[in-house]
Amino acid sequence: MDLIEANKLAVQLDHKTILHSFSFSIAEGEFVGVLGPNGAGKSTLLKLILGLLQPSMGTLSVLGATPHRGHAQIGYLPQHRLVSSGFNLTGYQLLASSLRAHRYGLPLLSSEDKTKIESVLHAVGAQAIARQSFLNLSGGERQRLLLAQALLGDPKILLLDEPLNNLDPHYQEVLIDLVAQVAKQKKITVLFTAHDVNALLPVMDRVLYIVKGVAKLGLVQEVITSDHLSSLYGTPIEVLNYKGRVFVLGQHRGLGDFHHHCHE
Fold it and tell me: Which residue of 7, 14, 137, 193 has the fewest C-beta atoms within 10 A of its own C-beta?
């Protein structure tokens, strides 16, 4: 079953085309890596799915309806989350305040609320850090709790906007594996944006590659080719296959100098 369907979708902001006419569908339980350089239109696509932006042309259906703000079945981990020094909540309190949003103070939790919080903490393996101050946690630990927050509504779709930013390679790998594991267990459709090809290749079902508002969706072996990447980037990109591995070589700053992935 397709949870996201777009037909000739296009977006213009301030008279600038951000996404060109694009049709695609994404099925239940798919893990789609949304890749491309900064400013390509990746975050714009997520905002369309969230109902934060409206298409300039075409149609978009999410969970069988026109997207709208605050959809309970869409979990979202935004790219930028400012945390001030006055933000002195523990991870558990962060989840509690998200579950039962109060303007002042922390909410009183029912036994059902507590069970829900414990469930998402267990799902992401964050029980040990849940009682610590969010401010004192590492970047990887914070992302783990923010992932738990995004899972509170039992989402059918999970949108993650550049969650690997500012994480070291170890925590990047841990977070990617965790998202893939949770998504598989709960049959969640994942759109995970990044600008590095290499990071997501081991877990993607398909790749949605966006460059300068032009997009290509398909299997990794269909999209990660010399012809397609050279066309998208407008510069020569070489993709090599050697002993079951795929090597992508290029000098474009959004692609990186060297990426590889082993296909079993």
Answer: 14
